[in-house]
Amino acid sequence: MFRMVLQDIRTSRLRTSITAFSIFIGVIAVVFSVLIGTMGKSYLESTIAQKSGRSVTYKADLTDASLTTTALARLDQRVTAMKGIDGTIVIEMPDTLMSLVPGKSQNSDEAATVNGHDTHSAHVVFTDPEYSTVYSVPMDRGQWFQRTDAPTAASIIVNKKLAQDLKGAQTVSAYIGNLRTPMMMRIQGVVNDGEMDEAKVYLRHDQAQTFFRGLAEQGSVSLRLHPRSEGMSQEEVRSRAADIVFDIFGDQKFEFVTTNDGNQFVGVIEFLQLAFLLVSAVILFVSMLGLLNISIASTEQKTRELLIRRAVGASRGSIFVLVLSSIVLLTVAVSILAVGISVVIVQFLPLLVPHDSPIDIPGYPYTAAIAGIGSAVVTGLLAGLIPAYQAARLEPALVLR
Its topology with respect to the membrane (predicted)? Predict the structure, then answer.
């Protein structure tokens, strides 16, 4: 029987090729609809994490805190040591811009350059190495700040917008606020922070205390907290933040809000995934109709051959199984081939995504591949039932006509 099925498949190469292509498209559609839906979800979540923190992220704003060097050091120590929560300190100065002159050395002529065309302005964010545990910070080049006890040279991280303005400079002379003495700083890295129109500079708050003494105290301080466990409630996070604030600043009031609760775009994500699944279902349905049409036409072309087989003793059941098996065998073979090709394509996906993209390339969707093969087999069975039934009903006497 198996040899007869193979011979039946090879009889009409054009028909087999068209049928195989129809099945191939259906299986590929299922695999990549799931993959695209997963990547879309990852892109949306990662893009939100660039600006609002990973899901879930809370913010505790200390509006009137007296942020001395000692208080900032203690705050940094306590936030870093929190168990079960990734925490970072962020000090923003929305009304203060840093002026940067690319590639200049510290000399007497530098102050005159500040008003020239080589000067670029950027908003300043003082933070720490733990910022990368709360926010998504894909690096275009270099690396994010690292925690170390050894003294480090003054360095900054700039976003892609500012890096483009600085035209690849490795060092800058920085001026900020009322401090007119320039500070030579190395650009440690370039980060994709999701800001397309706003130039930003990221500077470690401990280095700000060292090189721009007294400047960090002028900014607005906030704690950004991301629980590692989904079971940790907002009240528990708020209580632990309140304990830290009270121990360092006393009876200091703070505003506690959620910046990313993970639910604001759940509807969009679910809609995207549902839309891709519906598209793949439609493609599979169209594939089944095409396969059914081809199978019926093929059976009609083989009517005389099937009648001869019936005349020499083949039963209705054997004819039914023969016709149905050829379609199912072809479906399984092409489905496995489609999955194999999709595996290779997925391996090359990282080459198509920019290295500083916030997207986490998902692994191969094996569940979708299994579903695709299963759907293709079911499609083949459904498409083969009608022509197999028609072939089984052929009467041997018709061969004499």
Answer: Multi-pass membrane protein
Of the two residues 53 and 29, the one the predictor is more confident about is 53
Instruction: For residue 299, give both structure tokens.
Output: 């059976």
Residue type (1 letter), 186: R
Instruction: Name the nearest CA neighbour of 172 among 194, 156, 160, 161.
Output: 156
Give the Cα separation of 327 and 377 in Å (integer).
9
* Contact criterion met (CB below 8 Å) for 357 and 325: no
Alpha-carbon gap, residue 115 to 91, rounded angstroms: 27
Separation CA 242–CA 229 (nearest Å): 19
Strands (E), 207-364: 220-227, 255-260
The H-or-E segment that residue 385 falls in is helix 366-392
> Strand pairing of 171-176 and 120-127?
unpaired
pLDDT, tens digit, for every residue of 304-317?
777 777 777 777 78
H helices of 53-174, where? 69-80, 110-113, 131-134, 160-166
- Which tokens sit at 86? 């990734």
Mean pLDDT across 125-140: 94
pLDDT, tens only, 346-369: 888 888 888 888 887 777 888 878
For residue 269, give the H/E element and its range.
helix 266-301
Residue 356, Cα to own-chain centre: how many angstroms?
Answer: 12
Sorted by sequence, the CB contacts under 8 Å of residue 198 that are 6+ apart come out as 123, 159, 161
- The mean predicted confidence, pLDDT, of the chain is 81
Assign 90 to helix, strand or coil: strand
What confidence category does residue 83 fall into, taking pLDDT thresholds of 50, 70 and 90? very high
Q: What is the mean pLDDT of residues 82-93?
A: 92
139: left (phi over 0), alpha (psi -120 to 50) or beta: beta
Phi, psi at residue 375, to the nearest 5°? -65, -40
- Looking at residue 391, its amino acid is A
Using CA atoms, how far apart are residues 70 and 59, in angstroms rounded to an integer? 22
Lowest pLDDT segment from 51-60, 97-106, 122-131, 188-197: 97-106
Residue 106 has pLDDT above 50, yes or no: no
Sequence-ordered list of residues with C-beta below 8 angstroms from that of 12, at least 6 positions apart, any chain: 298, 301
Q: Which of 193, 216, 203, 176 is nearest to 75 (CA)?
A: 216
Residue 108: its pLDDT value, please? 39
